Amino acid sequence: EVQLVESGGGLVKPGGSLRLSCAASGFTFSSYSMNWVRQAPGKGLEWVSSISSSSSYIYYADSVKGRFTISRDNAKNSLYLQMNSLRAEDTAVYYCARPRLAVDNNWFDPWGQGTLVTVSS
Amino acid sequence: YDLTQPPSLSVSPGQTATITCSGAKLGDKYVCWYQQKPGQSPVLVIFEDNKRPSGIPERISGSNSGNTATLTISGTQAMDEADYYCQAWDSTTAVFGGGTKLTVL
Fold first, then answer.
1. What whole-number distance in Å separates Cα of residue B70 and Cα of residue B79?
2. Each residue's pLDDT tens digit in chain B (105 positions)?
3. Are A48 and A38 in contact (CB under 8 A)?
4. CB burial class (10 A; 0-12, 13-18, 19+) of residue A30?
5. Which residues, 6 or more positions from A106, have their beta carbon under 8 angstroms from its beta carbon?
6. Which of A38, A53, A63, A112 is the most exposed, having the fewest neighbouring CB atoms within 10 Å of its CB?
7. CB–CB of A45 and B34 under 8 A?
8. Do A44 and B97 touch (CB under 8 A)?
9. Alpha carbon of A110: minimum distance to chain B alpha carbons (Å)
């Protein structure tokens, strides 16, 4: 069974940093691109970042570019999101999402259960 | 690139629910749809405009043409009550619609 388990969320002050992790199991992690998607409380979904299987290609939403860094460790079947210079508007549930197929990164299926990040003083 | 969805839609059980997603030349792109129930993670219900992942009932279907993609739920049931999001790619950026809250009453 494919599983994605996020961790690392919590309460952080504005300007602070946090590192999220996503532990993957049940599939060949090193063959898939991976993504982070977030959802502010009561709001819609917002794509945050993508990373290709070998980390050769990395993309960010404009809203996080220069502050967030996506990375992965294929040996540990893990995806990461380093979040710096956090702002109140970064408050959200952060989901780790795998594409449906290894050959592309088009459709997110499945998603993890999410981890809540709260940025507040 | 923006995708626009109606914020809400209400249907009676057994009726057909039609949720739209609008964007410039959206028909030139592939679109997918996610279902999200309260307190749960999103679930892919339609990909590549009109394909269903295994386990998704046939009464859920999709189409995409011109500037509008459409998610259709036939014979709507109480279990279909959820938020629905469309998604497409604009170059290397994934774009989501604002979501439509489907109420079955």
1. 20
2. 999 999 999 999 999 999 999 999 999 999 999 999 999 999 999 999 999 999 999 999 999 999 999 999 999 999 999 999 999 999 999 999 999 999 999
3. yes
4. middle
5. A99, A100, B30, B32, B47, B48, B89
6. A63
7. yes
8. yes
9. 7
